[in-house]
Fold:
Amino acid sequence: MSRRRDDVRRRMKNRPCLGYFAHWPQDGDDWIHPDDVLTARDYIPSERVFRREESVDGYFTLHYGEVQIRVLPALWQEVESEGFAIGDWVEVLSHGGRQRPHTGQIRE
Structure:
């Protein structure tokens, strides 16, 4: 692994763990685990927000609901957490009677 990649990995370790890929890197798909390339092509690029975790094989594991994609750092755009994830149950308030209060599950 290159010195630059080690430096990026070290800096990313302490940063927020949510983000997205707005673009596909021009230099191929070497940044994606070979077993996950087809899945990645279905989900990246997009405005989907992934949760990122470091894994033991040197790749970061991205989670989007039940979907997992292993990647190396490339064009990752960090975002602030709003405290919700796909699959969470939430309560929608009436906002002064303007809408019907209800509960629902977050999904794509």
Notes: The first strand starts at residue 18 and ends at 20.
